[in-house]
């Protein structure tokens, strides 16, 4: 199994679970505004990292709140951009970028993609905690669950 394959599979999982979570959030009608803020943050951060890799200016703010419909569309766009990067770029290439505080850093594309996937998982866990706290149903978001059910 190659790194390329693992990242393509992680991208497929991340896309599927994020779309499913948005649909779950619509169904659960969560009232805590932090749920939509965190879901927006997951999608926005992914988009921002892709824009950094591509060397284009950020087109969205880190905590910009979007509608669930907009989020689903952006998740699919992020998926396509990630696939393009995975098939056209060397994952070991270094990317120099500025964070939201204006500090300059350098990381490889591989490190950035790993961060994107881990970051998404972390915040999906927070969303599930908020849902449960509100008396709503959490959603299974585990990679292995999605892998076993062959949805990716």
Describe this structure as you would to a colleague.
The chain is mainly alpha-helical and 152 residues long. The protein has one domain: Four Helix Bundle (Hemerythrin (Met), subunit A) (Up-down Bundle), CATH 1.20.120. It is 66% helix and 7% strand. The chain contains 5 helices and 2 strands, in the order αααββαα. Strands 1-2 form a two-stranded antiparallel ribbon. A hairpin with a 5-residue loop joins strand 1 and strand 2. The chain starts with a helix and ends with a helix. The model has no long low-confidence stretch (mean pLDDT 95).
Short description:
The protein has 152 residues and is mostly helical.
Structural class: mainly alpha
Report the end-to-end length measured between terminal Cα atoms.
16 Å
Which strands sit side by side, in order, in the main sheet? 1-2
CATH 2nd-level architecture: Up-down Bundle
Mean pLDDT: 95
CATH superfamily: dinb family like domain
Q: Please write the CATH class name.
A: Mainly Alpha
Strand content: 5-15%
Report the order of strands and helices: HHHEEHH
Number of helices: 5
* Rg estimate, integer Å: 15 Å
Number of domains: 1
Q: Approximately how much helix is present in the residues? A: 55-70%
β-strand number:
2
């Amino acid at each position: 199994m190659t790194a390329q394959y693992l990242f393509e599979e992680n991208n497929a999982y991340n896309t599927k679970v994020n779309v499913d979570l948005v649909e779950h959030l619509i169904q659960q009608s969560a009232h805590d505004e932090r749920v939509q803020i965190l879901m927006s943050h997951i999608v926005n951060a992914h988009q921002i990292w892709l824009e950094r890799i591509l060397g284009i200016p950020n087109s969205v703010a880190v905590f910009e709140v979007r509608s669930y419909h907009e989020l689903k569309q952006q998740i699919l766009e992020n998926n396509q951009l990630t696939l393009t990067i995975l098939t056209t770029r060397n994952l070991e290439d270094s990317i120099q970028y500025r964070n939201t505080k204006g500090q300059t850093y350098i990381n490889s594309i591989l490190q950035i993609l790993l961060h994107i996937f881990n970051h998404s998982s972390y915040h999906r866990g927070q969303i599930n905690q908020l849902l449960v706290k509100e008396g709503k149903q959490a959603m299974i978001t585990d990679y292995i669950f999605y892998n076993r059910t062959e949805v990716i």
